[in-house]
């Protein structure tokens, strides 16, 4: 059930990922999607009809000129994230981007600063860290279950996107690659759990310079790969702990875990940060067994849009939201820093930092995901 006075949202970009946002907007209780637009206007028309959305705007400018729109959901391609979000802020709207926040640091820094000056909100995916498994992991850490944090590992080992995405070229152009595409899930979760990062080192390589699309409708099309497709990095967190991250589109098979957090009393095995739920496990120092941890929070199923709904809640209550521009900018800075370190051979001290977003209360309620039982 939608709360009184939900925030009116306009959606820019009606491609592949728009379905889950528009599906979940039907139960997220702080938002109401009132309009859509896309460069390919037929895509916007189709989604408006499918999801019963009242207005199809002929252009981004037309949407931004409408005073009814309070918040923009920007789910365009990464290369358009910065310009579209900046236009929204300049028009006095709050904006929530798909990840990455922007392509480069200058765009991201300007976006976050100008939103603060204009007193509008900037948010950014991923919001999977608001899901049950990651919130429970944070509670375990905050409750001292693994003691003082010592280290973390994060691995995304895949073969690429050209086998399933209908239009996968953007994954292999500027703004794409495994670190910019999947790194936000892993890094956002690490920063949420461990805190901000002080410095990093990185090394990158490209396994295949050309990729053949095998998904439909572009089956057989060759993509020229213009970005690194394997990134290895090391991090020192501001709390003194160290981390290792590998993000790859060049791995045919691997048995490495998604995320592990190690403390001086035990280890946490954190499930896939691209998902909201999954099995969280703990192993106490000296024990031979992993133990399953019961989840203490809600949202175990695909609840993409939760971060947008949390931002809408914060817009009304005038307090902080979690998937915010500060953590998204720190993650953007980190992703660039791994690549910069590889190019220069230097350890990079980050210029950005951020607070750990506040944990969700165990009884947080932003709507009932119908896919979750109980
Ligand atoms: N597809 C996924 O599973 C997935 C998952 C997580 C995140 N994302 C992110 O979501 C975003 C969109 O991905 P997608 O898979 O939906 O891509 P897509 O190509 O299917 O859709 C993007 C849409 O944005 C529109 N668009 C691009 N620039 C625009 C502009 N300036 N103004 C208006 N419309 C514009 C395009 O016409 C297209 O319809 C990307 O940032 C991607 O990283 C995608």
Describe this structure in words.
With 374 residues, this protein is of the alpha/beta class. The chain has a domain at 132-293: 2-Layer Sandwich (Dihydrodipicolinate Reductase, domain 2), CATH 3.30.360. It is 29% helix and 23% strand. The chain has ten helices and 17 strands. The protein has helices at residues 18-24, 41-51, 60-64, 78-90, 105-118, 132-142, 177-181, 183-194, 306-317, 325-344; strands at residues 7-12, 31-37, 55-56, 71-74, 94-97, 122-124, 149-157, 197-205, 210-212, 222-224, 230-237, 242-248, 259-263, 266-270, 280-284, 291-293, 348-349. It has a nine-stranded mixed sheet. Strands 3-2-1-4-5-6 form a six-stranded parallel sheet, with helices on both faces. Strands 9-10 form a two-stranded antiparallel sheet. Helix 4 runs parallel beside helix 5 (105-118) and helix 8 packs across helix 10. The radius of gyration is 20 Å and the shape is globular. The chain starts with 6 loop residues before the first strand and ends in a 25-residue tail after the last strand. The model has no long low-confidence stretch (mean pLDDT 96). The structure holds nicotinamide-adenine-dinucleotide (NAD). Nicotinamide-adenine-dinucleotide is lined by residues 12-17, 38-40, 43, 60, 75-78, 80, 84, 98, 167, 181.
Please give a handful of descriptors for the protein shown.
globular; alpha/beta; 10 helices; 6-stranded parallel beta sheet; binds nicotinamide-adenine-dinucleotide; Dihydrodipicolinate Reductase, domain 2
